[in-house]
Every structure is written in structure tokens, then in C-alpha cells.
Amino acid sequence: MRSLAWPSGGKVKKNETKFDDAMPEGGSLPELASKELSRTLLEGEAKLEQGSFEEAEVALREALSINNEEARALLGRIEYQKGNFQGALQLFDGIHLSGLAQSMRFHASEKPSIRNQKKGKNPKPDTLSNFLHASSLLIEAIYLKAKSLQKLGALEDAAHECKVVLDLMEEAFPGGLPSTWRDKKLAMLVNKMSILYPQLLAQAGLNDRAIPAYRQALLSTWGPNEDTLAALQKEFAILLLYGGVDASPSTPSPPGSRDGAYIPKNNTEEGILLLLLLLRRNILSKGVFDYSVLDHLSFALSVYGQTGVLAHQFEELLPGTMTRADRWYNLALCYCGAGEDKIALNLLRMSLGPTERPNNVASLLLAAKICAAQKDLAMEGVGYAQKALEQMSPEVMYMKSRALHILGVAFGTQASVPSSDSERKKLQQEALKALQEASALESEDPRIVFDLGLEYASQRQLSVAVDCAKRFLDISSGAWVEGWRFFTLLLTAQERHSEAELVLEAALEESSRWEQGRLLQTRAKIQMAMKQPLRAVHTYRQLLSLVQASHQSFSFEAWNWQKNKTGGRVEEVEVWQDLASVYTELKQWKDAETCLEKAAALKPFSAITWCATGKLYEAEGQQEEAIASYKNAIGIDPAHVDSKVRLGTLLRERGGIHATPVARSFLADALHAEPTHEEAWLQMGLLYKAEGSTDDAIDCLKAAVHYEQTSPVVPFSTILPSLSW
């Protein structure tokens, strides 16, 4: 044995410690203590490998002067790091935290001695540091115990362990950790457990408990850093959107929040708010942009019907976050969902510019879809769809059926635009060809089947159209109201009015209240066709109550019904116009006039209202007033077919060398715009008969009979293609 050599001459002074082994050159006392600790841990680990748990604990306790629980914590950490989670649990099971909360409160309230501070004496060994170190060991043991249980699949038990620690900390420090403790290991461990707890509940499928746990973690005072907080917010938002649990609104308010602050009404709103905060943080930070936040937000706002808000988020993205073409395409999707088709189409035109992405299939198909159902843009849609088919590579060949579907609808829409008979027939053939090819590729796509049936119906191939309508209802399980309505109109075109009414009754029972508008309107039309005007009045009153109730309701369904430009929405002015026609049929002139006044108050410049007024005057025998009303209607809408037909009829009946050519002109314009209008064919036939053109008259009257036998109570043109739903 040799003594420790000191620089003061080599003698060992009084109270100097002797060591059996010389200290290595360049060593120090802290380093020696650390090495002794490491050696002891290795010895304990060796005994642990031999299965001597108690001997390993005793060795650690004697060497480190720590108690039994702290030794178990250290040994358990060794086993956890080795991946022996079962062995770690055996050690951690002997650790208890009873009395720790009281000890924490005591040490947090203890202050240094004022007398020692005045005399400048060195304080006693830092008992607070020792206590924090020991507490950290125990808390870490429970944390590793929870992680071990998680690895072994015992998620609920792991969550319980986290809950024990969090309850203990809440009991010890209701107002949060002391400021001097927040940079200690203890604070880091508690923070980890506050985050792990809701994650474990979510992994266990206990979403009803995980949601309040996430809220508590986000509002906790344990101080997670910014990155951890962002990750937690993202996890919580995903759980709210996809968890499938309708949790109650968040009741606690964040610290410092103002009274009356907005509280989300449901999970979707809460998830959207969290994602908006995350997106704002992403935009303002200089780190890597998290595109998944934008993806989840896009989904949530789209489902919630707030694509206009989503467009605003894309507009606020900093330059460089995404390419101009990508931004324009995403903005176009948003505005298209918001019903702003013109803005969306202008954005797509820029995106498809020669210097951007002129051959992008997705942009071409979206532009074609917007144009397809609009008469003034149908040919532009045909061009986009054809170009998309030309540019399709094998990677996007799955979109071929969609492109053919859009192309067929665009051809069909263009066929309804006034043109020559030969051009119309050619377009109709192209429409059927494209839709049949699309149906062959995707035979189970309900939208393709519906639009194929609608095209057959417009060409008066009713039996095939009925088969398509039935198939659509089977494939879609009757989920779309327009499918029931289409089937009903086909039955009325086959003069099966009783069956059509039964189908409507079944559809009304299956649909929600706010989807019943068009169904009720169609039922009233059927009742009029069956010569039951009093029943039709009752149905229209039901419809009027529904429309007026939607204006007073604050529910999301009612708002969505009012916002919807297709499908089930019925305007109040339409109800008053239809009621005026019913009362005119009943010869109740005063009631008809009242309905027309209400319609004119809602929409002063309406060709339909003026046309209904003309029919009222005509029924009353006031021919001149009727003619003036029809002229007003045509002045407002030069393409209004019914007004042209009625005006042509009155002029034909008046006769004379001046009136007859004008009548022929109005009737010809009406047939050019709507070749299936049976009343126009009838009046044109009578006009030819009066002129002595027997052959022409026979042809016209045959066409009138054909279209009368195959015309529904409501024109098929009132049903929009499924692309517009």
C-alpha cells in the first residue's frame, strides 16, 4: 500500500485518506468516485446475469449508500436498456412512491439558513440536490416501468403507472413545479410522463379517456418545449379527427385566457383549431415545413364544408413552400369545393400555362370537370378531357375511366346547346360512346352508371335508362336522393305515375329532412299529372314549410342544404311560382295572384314569374296582358323556352299575315333550344296545318305525340350530372 502523493512534499497530512491502489496519473477524486460507481454497477450487473437479484441490490446499496428502492431503480434501468423488459418489471414492481409528495412539498418550502448566509459559511452538503437525485431515480423507474409495459402490450397498465405519477405531482405542486426545479431531470421526466399518458390511452383504444388526457397535457404546467408541444398538438388533432369518439367540448380554459373565449362545439372544430395553430407555427418557424399538417387540415376543412377557409390557408403560405403550379391547383380544388367555379377555372388555366404544367393530368381533369356541366364551357371541357387522355402515362392510367366519364358528360352538355340536328346527333353519339367506355372500365362506379343513364334518358332510350337507374340505386344503396328522383322521373316518362309516387314515398322515408326538397316538389308535379291539384297544394305547403324552416335553423345540415346549389335545395321563389300554376289550374285567381306577388317580391326580375303571370292572364281570357307578360319574360331571359312557346301559340291563334311568321319564328327558336318540347311540336304542327302543309304538320304532330308519351313530369335537364354533386 502506498499513500496518495500530494504536491506539498510527499507527506500525508492529518485526516488525509489512504487508498489501497494508487490514483492513476492525472486523476481526481470525482473521477475516482465515478469509476468506483461504474465498477460497482458492473459487479451488480454480473450478479444480475447470474439471477442473484438480492445480492445485486445489496452490492449496490452498500457501495452507493442508497436504499433498496433506488438500487432496484438502477438495476431496472440496466435491464430495460438491455431489452429485458420482463426482468425490468420484476425489479420495478418493488418500487413505491408513498410519501414522496409530502417530501417534495417539504424540500420545496425549505430555505437556506439566514445565519449561515450572513457568516459566509459554506452550507451543509446539498440535501436538496440529493433529494432531487433520489426522487428522479424513483420517477424514472416508474417511467421505465410504463415503457416496459408498453413494450409488452399492457397499455392500460402502463397508462395507470403514468397516472399515478401525474396525480402525485398534482398533489405535491397544484400550481406547477418550483421555478428552481424546472431545469432538473425530475421536471423532464414528469413532462415525458404527461405526454406518454394520453399516447398510451390512445394506443389502447381508450379514446374517450385519451381526449381529456391530451387536453390536460396541453394545458399542463410541466413545461414541454415547443417541438414537443407541437408534436402533442398534432397527435391530439389526428385523434380528434379520426378517433371516432364524440367527446364533450373542452371545459378547462388555458391560463391567461379571456372570459368568453371561443370553445369548440365538437371534435372536428377542436381538431381544426389545433391544426390551424400548428400551420401558423410552421409558417413562422424557419425549420422544415410539416406538410402532413396541411394534409390533415385539408381533410378536416373539406369534410366540414369550409374549403373557402382552406383556400385562405394556402394563400398565406410563404413563397417556396410549394411550387406555383401546386399552389394554384390546390387553390382551385378549394374554390371548386366552395362553389367558386370561375375562380377555380382561372387558376387552373394559369396552372396549365405553357411555362407551368400544361400536361398535368390532374389539373386537366379538374378543369374539364368544372367545364363539363356548363353549356358555355362544355367544348373547353371536351378539349381538356381529350388532352388528359392523350397525356396519360401507365402510372396514371387508373384515371382513364374518370377522364372518359368527364368527356362523356361534356359531350352531352354540348349536345343540349342549340345547333343543327346532325351536329346534335353526332355529339350525343360521342357522349354515349365515352360513357359506355368509362362504364366498361369501372362497372361498379355509381356516378358513371348514373350519368350513362341520364344520357340515355335525354335521348329517350327509356328502357335502358331505367336499367341504369335501378343499377345505380343498387350500387349506391340508395344513398343519393338524386338517384331516387331520376328513377321517379323515368317512371313518369313511361306514364307509370302511381308507381313513381310509391317510389317517392319510399325515398322520403329514407332521406333526411333537409334532403326532401326536390322529392316533395317532384311529388307535387306527379299529383298534378294525375289530376289531383288539391293534393299538390298540400304537398307544396309542406315544401314551403321546409324551405322557410331552413332559413331559421342554425344546424349544419340546414346550412349545407341552403348552400348547396345542386341536389335537394329548392328556392322559396320556386314554390310560390309552382303554387301559382296550381291555383291557376284550379281557377282560383286571387290565390294565384297572391302567390305571384310573393314570388315577384323575392325575385323581381324572373322570366318564370312573368311566364306564370302570362298563363294566369291567358286563363282569365286577357290575351293582350298575357302577350305582354310573355314578352317581358323573353326580355329578361331571351332563352326562356316556355315563354316563346306560349307567345307563339297566342300569335298563331290570332292569325294574320303579320302574326303567323312571328309565331313560326318563336316556335322554331323554342324547338332549336329544346328539341324534346312536346307543346312546341304540337303548336308547330297546328301552324303547318293552318297553312296547308299537311306533310310537315303530320311530322310535327307525330313528334309531339312521341315526346308527350316519353316526357317526364319534370324535364330530365333539371337533373344535373353526378359530376356536379
From TrEMBL:
Segments annotated as TPR repeats: 573-606, 607-640, 678-711
Signal peptide (UniProt feature, chain positions): none
Record carries keyword Ligase: no
Keyword annotations of the record: TPR repeat
Region described as Disordered: 1-29
Protein name: Uncharacterized protein
InterPro entries tied to this protein: NPG1-like, TPR-like_helical_dom_sf, TPR_rpt
The organism of origin for this protein: Ceratodon purpureus (Fire moss)
Keyword Aminoacyl-tRNA synthetase attributed: no
